[in-house]
Write a structure and sequence with these properties.
This protein is an all-alpha fold. The chain is built from nine helices and no strands. 38% of the residues are buried.
Length: 218
């Protein structure tokens, strides 16, 4: 018996798992930012969102267990920046530019509520800020580490960024969707270059500190 059909079961199962996670995640994300106005509700929906992304990542790891694509051996004669330092540098610059961009967009009347609405809800709430950090980590687990198992190296940065932007669009927040696309592109490219799980997580964490921790105070 030919084994060709069986060879397609893993990609098919991984695709279904990824799609289901994004549909559920989009709904939960909408409820997190638009479906509740009190902090307790925001906390519960945020935790559920983190669980959704973590479950999606775990599912992809199980149905598509192959490791990330390996790059050709590096030329030891050429100095290379350590992945951690690269992520810190890129993350810091990106977080700073995002903060400046948010301050500019805040002055545009049609976007002011989109820019200030989300971040202002966690002001003076260390618990919500920590939850936001944790949720960011789980987003990177799914959209970067998880989808990298499903997508080819060539298309991974583009398609994972598009997927992240489409899911964020479920919030109805234009400014947040723009930010998600930029964040997704930055994290995806750095992860593709370094192939270290912590690089997109660090970039996302720095972005969260800037936009959720610092921006509401300015």
């Amino acid at each position: 018996m030919p084994h060709k059909p069986a060879q397609h079961r893993v990609p098919y199962a991984a695709s279904i798992s990824a799609l289901a996670t994004m549909v559920v995640g989009g709904f939960v994300l909408h409820q997190t930012l638009q479906g509740t106005s009190d902090r307790s509700g925001l906390s519960l929906w945020s935790i559920l969102l983190a669980v959704t992304w973590t479950t999606g990542w775990f599912a992809l790891a199980r149905v598509s267990p192959r490791p990330p694509r390996q790059k050709p051996p590096e030329d030891r004669s050429t100095p290379r920046t350590h992945p951690l330092l690269l992520a810190l540098a890129v993350g810091t610059v990106f977080a700073g530019m995002s903060l400046i961009g948010a301050l500019v967009l805040r002055e545009i009347p049609v976007l002011e509520s989109d820019v200030t609405g989300t971040a202002s809800r966690v002001t003076d709430s260390p618990v919500l800020f920590l939850i936001a950090l944790a949720t960011g980590v789980t987003e990177e687990l799914f959209f970067r580490l998880g989808l990298s198992r499903l997508l080819s190296r060539r298309w991974f940065p583009l398609l994972s960024t598009v997927a992240y932007g489409v899911v964020t669009l479920a919030t109805g927040n234009v400014a947040l969707t723009i930010a998600a696309v930029l964040l997704g592109a930055t994290s995806s490219v750095v992860f593709s270059v370094t192939e270290r799980w912590y690089t997109p997580v660090l970039i996302h964490a720095l972005w969260t500190v800037a936009l959720v921790g610092v921006f509401p105070l300015l």
